[in-house]
Amino acid sequence: MPTATLLAPTDIDQDQTVFDIDAIRERNPQRFDLEMLDRIVHLDPDSGLIAAVREIRQDEFWVRCHFPDEAILPGVLMIEAAGQLCSFYFREVTGVPGVIGFAATDRVKFRGLVRPGERLLIVGQMTSLTARRARFKAQAFVGERRVFEAEVTGMVVL
Questions:
Q1: Is 42 designated active site?
Q2: Which residues contact 136 (CB under 8 A, 6 or more apart)?
Q3: φ, ψ at 147 (rounded to 5°)
Q4: Which of 58, 61, 108, 121 sits CB 3.0–4.6 Å from 116 for a disulfide?
Q5: How far, in Å, CA of 16 to CA of 42, rounded?
């Protein structure tokens, strides 16, 4: 059974930009094919909530091979998108320098397919935060349909 919705997609203006790609790049080191966030559309440190949008494009590296006749976003890239969202939150809220890497992923569930041309909304909620480690619940949606959920733990690795 799916967990409770952290933040309903209908409660977020997905067309607004709270932080653009340049601001994301200031906090997250991923570049080129592994940049999984296009813009941050919601950030509320009081509730620990953050949300970002990723426009799934036809020209992405995985489209021609996963799967050639019926492209679907690989689940590992949804996990990566959630990790990058949580990393952005950690860096923005704590100001701690360095690179945040995965320490753990738990309770991962894939609940739907994501295809080129769709918009992926990734939502995270911080559940535990220290100077070196952060734990989040994460969910992703296409429209109002939940396609992914997990618990993500990150820590300063560099």
A1: no
A2: 82, 85, 86, 89, 124, 125, 126, 127, 151, 152, 153, 154
A3: -115, -10
A4: 58
A5: 9
Q: Looking at 66, 119, 132, 133, which residue is catalytic?
A: 66
Q: What is the Cα gyration radius of the chain?
A: 15
Domain range summary for the chain, segments of one domain joined by +? 9-156
CA distance 105 to 12: 26
DSSP-H helix ranges across 2-158:
21-27, 75-94
Cβ proximity of 51 and 86 under 8 Å: no
- Partnered with residue 42 across adjacent β-strands are 51
CATH of domain 9-156: 3.10.129.10
Asked if residue 1 has pLDDT above 90, the reply is no
Per-residue pLDDT tens digits for 77-136: 999 999 999 999 999 999 998 889 999 999 999 999 999 999 999 999 999 998 889 999
